[in-house]
Amino acid sequence: MPSPWIWRAIWAVGIALIVATLAFAALPYVASTRIVRDRIAWEMSAWSGFRVAIDGAPQIEIWPQFRAILTDVTLSKWTDTTNAPVVQAERVEVGLSAMAALRGDVVFQSAVLIRPTIRLEPLANGLFMPPTSSGGRIARSIDAARKLVAADPAKPDQGALPSDAFGTVELRDGRMISAVGGKDQEVFTSLNGQLDWPALNDGATLSATGIWHGETVALDLSSAKPLLLFAGGTAPVTVSVKAPPATFSFDGTANLSQNAYFDGQAKFAAPSLRRLLEWSGTGLASGSAIGAVALSSKISGEPKRLKLANTEVTLNNNPGMGALDLSLSEAVPAISGTLAFDTLDLRSFLAAFTPLASPTGRQDQEVGAGITDRLNLDLRLSAAHASAGPIQLANVAATAQVKDGLAVFDISDAAAFGGNIQSSLRFDRKPAGTQVEMRLLASDVNGAQFGAAAGMTRLMPTGTGTISIILKGPGRAWDSILESANGSISATFGPGKLTGLNLPAFLKRNQQGGFFALDEVSDGTVLIDGAELKASISNGVARIDKAEAKSAKTKIWLSGIVPYAGHGLALSGGITSAAQPPPAQPAQPAQQPAQSADAGTGADAATPPAQPPAQPAQPAQPAQLSFFVGGTWNTPFISPITRAVPSGG
Questions:
Q1: Spatial separation of the C-alpha atoms in residues 67 and 95, rounded to whole Å
Q2: Which one, of 479, 240, 195, lies nearest residue 363 by Cα?
Q3: CA 212 to CA 177: how far, in whole Å?
Q4: What is the pLDDT at residue 165?
Q5: What does DSSP assign to residue 400?
Q6: Residues in the chain with pLDDT < 70?
């Protein structure tokens, strides 16, 4: 026979089941009478600090989760009379505690905002942030934490932090808007995310995705002590932002007080800086082909002044290291510091300043503002090896400066073409137009190497020489700049060869008369003792004042004009060959006068007749020929003019 204790246990379990069943059955009735719309709105307002309005009647669901479904929910500032809600959601699903509901209380466990619209407010720095409230439990908890931080900023009493339960907040298919010019514009669309914050004194994580400027952006944010962070204390923070145009991450500590600062490791990468600039909407260098950029650095400092130590930067697969300073205290950001590269593509680097250096830049492409009006830059660069198109450089020391519409790139020293070069590229954007200045000084360089890199293989001296080029001019596009440039070109070369000229064939072809292409006599070289070039440039037209190549027996010279527009040629030239002096004429014996029969034999008869005076030696007369050079830079032709034959004795 069963023990009385067994029967008692069976009755206890049965009664418990009956009570649970009755409670479950009575829950909709309790919810419908006690969990009313105003109570839910009041509780939401108590947490957020905003005025909450719910237009539709709540719907209560018990299975599979006890929750209230709200429609047409708005959160507004208590002091706002413009009827512009801070948050407006078509539907809000609030997870509730069933036991608290039986007691007549409303305890939120989760909230899902479906198709919410969140209004952002512009900040003084130009950014947009969700508005905050000065009331509510969250605001009061932050105030309490702020007092703990003020009492001991270094080690606030974390055990005294408010421990209210918070829960999970989820967004589905939301958007963020902001008023620009009096009209609401979408900032983020397709916004989905979830905030997990079990308790206010616990850690929190936020994961969200949204579309910004047509690209999907993923944000992951976490902090072990978010309440301390909001209260102005120091707390660990991890941030990750991922989008197709760029990625960014930070892992360290942060302080968001009035004297905010950051300290940690940061990483940034962009497959195409041009695409990133276009995506950001800054309008910077949109026509430039700037390649991949990656940066990893330890950052420290305040928001207006950050130091980037042990910086590893990669530009178009060219790695470098250095230290940088980022200042945001002025109207435009300022970057300064030093970077050292093993290899560096100067053309890609310069593409950030102007489309001239862009690998795909066109000659007629307009010079854009680039970053000259939106960034101050002062960098010291060095590279063991560098390239600028076909030009190879070594041991490069350079500077890049950008400020107030002025962009300057200087190479103070570099080894190239067997010698050294110095170069400067300057763009000065003024109200009257852009002024451009280009300078190049190549010392002790090999002429053949310089000519090959510059594409000048025709009539280029191969000896060691010095070249100076100075160009200045205004213009809206590169063609107009070169067509209106002013400046000078000078060069001197020592012994070597003059390439692209078969002199015997040239003389023969010239003697035959009629014009002919220079390509017909370009299969040869001429030994020279030196060469010199001096030319002045005015409004895009080069006037050759002196162009000579000399050897012991020959001098070749050119003069005339070479306009940039049309690439035409209008030159006169000549070749002077030293001739041998005429041979000396032998002295002729004087004839004796005939004597008459009655001539005597005195002294007069014995005196020889007087000789004619000796003729002075004739100087050597050089052989000269003159010709005209016309056509274009790529297809020059020669037209003989005159040929002077040296005179005889």
A1: 4
A2: 479
A3: 11
A4: 86
A5: E
A6: 1-37, 81, 83, 98-106, 123-127, 281-290, 351-374, 475-479, 578-623, 642-649
Angstrom distance (rounded) from CA 33 to CA 389 = 80
Instruction: Give dist(CA 460, CA 162) in Å, integer.
Output: 82
Distance between alpha carbon 426 and the CA centroid of its chain, in Å? 16
CA distance 47 to 549: 90
For tokens 């692209």, name the residue.
Answer: 500
Nearest C-alpha neighbor of 347 from the set 315, 322, 324, 371 = 315
Three-state helix/strand/coil letters over 306-358: EEEEEEEEEECCEEEEEEEEEECCCCCCEEEEEEEEEEEEHHHHHCCCCHHHC
Structure tokens that stand for 281 in this block: 């909407």
Q: What is the model's pLDDT at position 346?
A: 86
Q: Which residue has the tokens 């032709």?
A: 637
- What tokens were used for 266? 């940061």
Chain centre distance of CA 406: 15
Angle at 229 between CA 223 and CA 232, to 5 degrees: 165
Q: CB of 400 within 8 A of CB of 411?
A: no
Instruction: Measure CA of the first residue to CA of the last residue in the chain; give whole Å.
Output: 161
Rg of the chain on CA atoms, in Å:
44
Nearest to 292 by CA among 211, 336, 341, 349: 349
pLDDT of 36 reads: 53
Q: What are phi and psi of 284, to 5 degrees?
A: -85, 125
424 and 472 Cβ atoms separated by less than 8 Å: no
Run of H or E residues at 174 = strand 165-180
Write the DSSP symbol of residue 523.
S
Q: What is the pLDDT of residue 112?
A: 93
Question: Where do we find the tokens 């959601």?
Answer: 89
Nearest to 490 by CA among 414, 422, 449, 548: 548
Residue range 61-120, pLDDT digits in tens: 777 777 888 889 999 888 776 768 899 999 999 887 766 666 666 677 889 999 999 998
Q: Spell out the residues 6+ positions from residue 480 whose beta carbon is closer than 8 angstroms to its own.
A: none
- What angle separates helix 37-48 from helix 136-151, to the nearest 10 degrees? 20
CB contact at 8 A, 205 and 222: yes
- Contacts with 124 (C-beta within 8 Å, 6 or more apart), sequence order: none
Q: Quote the longest CA-to-CA distance of the chain.
A: 204
